[in-house]
Design goal:
This protein has 236 residues and is mainly alpha-helical. The chain has nine helices and no strands. Helix 1 packs across helix 6 and helix 2 crosses helix 6. Keywords: Membrane, Transmembrane, Transmembrane helix.
């Protein structure tokens, strides 16, 4: 699961950030194309990760691919929901994912990783079909931007998912459990700053295009706000 999450953080976050920057949302066809671009963007890094951590792959390769595609879809959909600013869709999104998953887990004999991947895919396509069916399908213009953003996200946020994998490879389960708790705490501390950045990335892009001096001033103020919120997270 950690490997699939890392793969989705490259392609899904890369495509999603470009979506926010360009103020783009997709109908079904565009959403599927964006998912393919996200998967292709992730492919090179995914092969490198699997080369070094192949011993940790307990599920089938097919299960890993299905889950990776499902998580990429889910990441892209989340960015479309943020752009739409209709968080009722987000709540329904989680409900649609949760309820059928419980049924599949109890009734299916498939491995857990494949079930999760299939559920992410069904849920994402269903939400797009219901809420974004009338959206245009513009071309995702910046493949290079998607690649750079996705892989830089792997360096920053993705390290949280690498740490338990590395710990398990080197030291076993006991230390891994402690590191997993640290990773969970770090994820909680950074969730609000990441949400703030997602909401601001489009505005910052427009300011940068029109007035670089204002951009530098606004970015300094934003960094101070992020630092303050993260300090509160550490205290909590």
């Amino acid at each position: 699961y950690s490997i699939a999450v890392i793969i989705s953080m490259i392609g899904g976050v890369g495509v999603g950030t470009v979506i926010l920057k360009n103020n783009t949302e997709f109908g079904m066809l565009g959403f599927v194309k964006a998912t393919i671009i996200g998967f292709v963007t992730s492919l090179c890094s995914a092969l490198i990760i699997l080369f070094f951590f192949k011993d940790l792959l307990s599920s089938s390769w097919l299960g890993l691919i299905i889950l990776s595609v499902g998580l990429i879809m889910n990441q892209i959909l989340r960015y479309m929901i943020v752009l739409n600013k209709n968080f009722k869709i987000g709540a329904l999104n989680e409900l649609v994912l949760m309820l059928p998953s419980l049924i599949f887990l109890m009734m299916s004999r498939m491995d857990l990783i494949s079930i999760l991947g299939i559920m992410y895919i069904i849920q994402s396509l269903l939400i797009v079909l219901i809420f974004f069916k009338n959206s245009n399908n513009p071309k995702l213009s910046s493949f290079k931007g998607t690649f750079y953003i996705g892989n830089s996200n792997l360096i920053s946020s993705g390290i949280l998912y690498f740490l338990p994998m590395i710990a398990f490879s080197l030291s076993g389960a006991e230390i891994t459990s402690n590191i997993s708790l640290m990773v969970t705490a770090a994820g909680i501390i950074t969730v609000f700053p990441r949400a703030m950045l997602n909401l601001k990335v489009k505005d910052f892009h427009l300011i940068l295009l029109n007035n670089k001096d204002e951009y530098h001033e606004q970015s300094r103020t934003f960094k101070k706000q992020i630092l303050y919120i993260m300090m509160l997270g550490f205290v909590a």
